[in-house]
Specification:
The complex is a heterodimer of chains A (84) and B (155). Chain A is mainly alpha-helical and 84 residues long. Chain A has helices spanning 22-31, 43-83. In chain B, 80% of the residues lie in helices and 0% in strands. The chains are: A mainly alpha (84), B mainly alpha (155).
Amino acid sequence: MNKPTPLELENLKWIIITSNNAEEVFKRLEEQGIDPVLWGLTDKDFELLAKNFAQIRNQLKITNDLLDKYKEYYEGDLENKDEK
Amino acid sequence: MFGIRLFLIGIVATAIAGGGFYVVKLQRDNAILKANAIKLESAVAEQQELITSQKEDFKEILAANQKMNELVSVLKKDLDDLDKRFNKKNRDVGKLAIAKTESIERITNGASALATRCIEIASGSPLTEKEKNATKKSEINRECPSIANPNYIPY
């Protein structure tokens, strides 16, 4: 049984917008030809998002390692035979 | 007189025939018992082999569980470290972002790229040589050193 292909993710760019730099940020977006619209998070929600992703990552790692263990258990003999 | 003799001969002949049949039956029973004993010995040996194999399996399962518990514990540490980065010494990331917008934006984007790489690693992506060889704080993936930098020992 083949393992699932590892993820190859795209990096995204965070823009911090405050009451001080809002105009400048939107102006810069327009200059770069990007729609002047942003999806916003408060600092607290950003923290929660970071922690949620860290938890998903941990769960993914655990599940993936568990899969390795099962694979080793059920297919370990087969792999040894193949090597012979 | 002849009748009595004939009767006695009959009894003796019957006794001999009965004895013969009995011996044959005993031999047959003995053969069955021997066959059963061989089967039983073979079954006992198989059971012992199975018990040994189950004991080995149990040891492996315990070791795997132990490793899994260790992994859960180091992953929890990564999560605690993330919490510290946000809240260490009553740090307020929001206020920091207002005061030092550009720096915090740069730090956020750097951390986001590292966190993205952490998810790739967690999904099974092989570690790069740089990740494997990282031993200093400046070289590690601070978002998930426990899974990204196996040779890093926190100091």
